[in-house]
Every structure is written in C-alpha cells, then in structure tokens.
Amino acid sequence: MTVMLDIENARKTFTMHLQGGISLPVVQGVSFQVKAGECVVLAGPSGAGKSSILKMIFGNYRCDGGRIDVRHEGEMMNLAGAEPRQVLNARRQTIGYVSQFLRAVPRVAALDVVAEPLLAAGIARDEARARAAALLSRLNIPERLWSLPPSTFSGGEQQRVNIARGFISDLPILLLDEPTASLDAANRAVVVDLIAAKKRAGVAMIAIVHDDEIRAQIADRTVDVKTFAVAA
Amino acid sequence: MADMISASDQPLLVAEGLGKSYGRLAACRDVSFVLYPGEVLAIVGESGSGKSTLLQMLSAQLAPSGGRVSYRMRDGVLRDLAELGEAERRFLFRTDWGYVHQDPAQGLRMAVSAGANVGERLMAVGWNNYGRIRQTASSWLQRVEIDVARIDDAPRTYSGGMRQRLQIARNLVTEPRLVFMDEPTGGLDVSVQARLLDLMRSLVNELGLAAIVVTHDLAVARLLSHRVMVMKEGRVIETGLTDQVLDDPREPYTQLLVSSILPP
Fold it and tell me: pTM, whole model, 2 decimals?
C-alpha cells in the first residue's frame, strides 16, 4: 500500500524562557511510516510525548529536526519547517485532527461546527449540513441540540461533536487523540465502526488510545513512543 | 505542486524592510512579509509595540521612512504604494480595501442614516440606482444582524456593538479584497465581542477576504487569523501559523504573552 506518512528522525524540545530558560526535551529520533488504510496506535505512558508527536505532524508544534513527509496531492511534502500556507493547505486537503477537546467557537451551532470542514473543502452548504446531521445522529446527539452551540453541552456530547467534525471530511490522513476517552460503550462502538469505515476508504490513521479493548479493535500496528525518549 | 500556479499563489500584498522613525525613535523596524489572497494575518503585541504604526504604513496612510509596500491591483500588476497617484490610492480605499477602526465613530458618519453609511460606499464606486442601493444596504444590515427597521436611524443612536457591525457592513459592501482592522473588538463588552468575532469570522470565510488584523487580544488572533506576527519594540520577533505560535511559542516575550491569558 501507498505510504501516506513518513517520519524520520523528528525531534522536539521545549525551551521554557519563563522558567529560567530550562530546556525540556520531549522526543527525538521519531521514525515510523503509516500506509493508506492502516491505523497505527502510539503507545507509551503519559508524558512520553504521544500527543506532542500528533501535534508535530499536524504542524501545531514546531519540529526542531528531522522530516515529516506527508502525501499531499500525490507527492510527498515535508511539513517540518514548511511555510504556514503549505501547512494550511495540507490541513484543508490532507490531514485531519481529532483533538481531545473541542475548541468551540461561541455562538456557532453544533451542526455548523461539524459541517465546517466540508464547507472549507468547497462542498455546498446543503450537502455539508445533511452529512453533518447524519453523522451527529449516528453519534447519538439528539436533534434538538443540533442548532445549539456545543459550548453548552456535556463533556461527552462535546467530544462526540468533535469526533463528527473530525470524521466528516474525506481527508486521507487522520490523527486521533483519545477519540473515545469520555464516551460510553455504545458510542465507543460507533467510533470503532467509523474508524473501520475510514480504513476501508484507504485513510491512514495515527491514534492515541488508552483503552486496551479499543486498541485491540482498531490497531493494525503499535509504535512504542518510549523508544523516542530522550536519554536523561 | 510548483506547476499548479493559481491566482492565490500570487501575493496580494508584499512588505519589504518597512520602517518608521520619528527622529531617534524607531516606531517600527525592518518588517517584511507576504500576504496571499484569502489569508488573515494578525499582528499582536502590547501598546507601543509598533503594530498600529505598521498598519498605517501597510494601508498607505503613513509614509514609511524605509522599505516599501506593494499591492496587486485588480489588473494583476503588483504596484509600489508609494508610487500610486492620489486618485489611484483613493480608488483602492473606496473599492478594493476596507478599514475597520477600533472606534466606529472614525469609520462611520455618525449623523447620517445607517442606510446612507452603507450606500455611500456604493455610490463612490458608481452605483446610482437608489432602489438598488437601498436594497443592497438592507441586505448588508441583515447580514451583520442589524434590524432593517433601523436603516433610517443614524448610528449615533446605535449601541457600540451595532455601530461596529455597521462599520463592517459599510466596509464590505463593495466586496473589497483586503480589509485592515485595528483592534476591531476593543472597547466592547465580552458578549458583544464574541458575536462580532463570530460574524467577522464567517464573513471573512464566505467572502474569501484577505485581512490584516491588529489586536492585543490573543483570543481574537486565535479565532480570526491563519497567521500571526508578534511585535515588540517595533520589531517582529516571532511569526508563524497562529495555533503554532500560540500553542508552541518560541520567543521569551511570546511565551510571556501566551502565559498571561486568563483561562476561560
């Protein structure tokens, strides 16, 4: 299968200027590949740098060294050190990110929060909203909530809105940061189904999941983040 | 990728080595960046950091002491703003650019009706059919969530939030390609700010506008902008994708700014 993501020797260190300039190494030597239709789960204890790796791939954290190549419009593009507009382009067309928490925009209805990535991809409003509605009902968000801003929702409801927003697009690479963390069993099963459907569609996924049962259901491969630890 | 040259691969505005000094005092030093169509750039920094001076130079209201600003005109030609004639500059201001002031009283005519405030921009670009002007003004009032029943009232009878929304309607009615905003939510109540931000965000997205937003409020930068430039003592000290600069700030001063945000 096609390699969608190829990370080689990526490295990240935080320098905390407000704490006397101490240097906080996060990960080094991060190297792995993800192919189309494959779900790779990042494993390791809290603080090992799993979320940081996802954020580096998404361009949210800067990469201090190495390469993060993603297949963008048919060609490999190095996102480490890419120009902001290249990163934005990759986010529009190539990489989606389901974060743990929804960063809701005040006043925007849940339905529109979910439909937004499709609108950004140029899909007509009616179709975008119809697809958003279908996904929200699949994730058991009651219809009476669709027109309300998710900032008023419970934690689990917000997470499901976030999942819907992440899964609605047709992007070929998806990053999942604990997508099932605060969900009940029924909704966890829905997410597992959604992930399976993305695999069939050839989407490459990198996930962080702490639940062993979910990991067993979705992981094609596990990458141990401890091997990227910086020796003290 | 390089062979896919589309319109948006051509910069809309280019700043090169821009600086402004007042005697020995350098208000703004050596600022260079490129803005592409549809891109929203936030310039952040505290008062006195030079961000407003920079905005004035970018919008041709203040002549730089050094460097230059070029703008791609509607005919596709990149022109140095300093070399434009007065008529060309006025044309830019009336049609291709918008400028949203922090104080709506500076951007509006407070004593004439809301409809005339919006319609005036249309007349300036040659509209002369009264019915059509009024109709377009009404539809813009609706878009910025102002009750059309208030179309004949002067903005001095409006609340602060309404005035700011009217100023936005007045600016956007001519479908500019670039909008400058100077602290657009400054001085408004938090609830009014949220509504205004949400409105600006959706209009910018729908119209594919490029914008340069000066703000000291990092939350405004996060909601509205794609890219951010952090200024301190007249210089750009850090620049990048907005979420990258705010979530992974590199410079000591940016880390201080980000750590000073009160949690919501």
Answer: 0.91
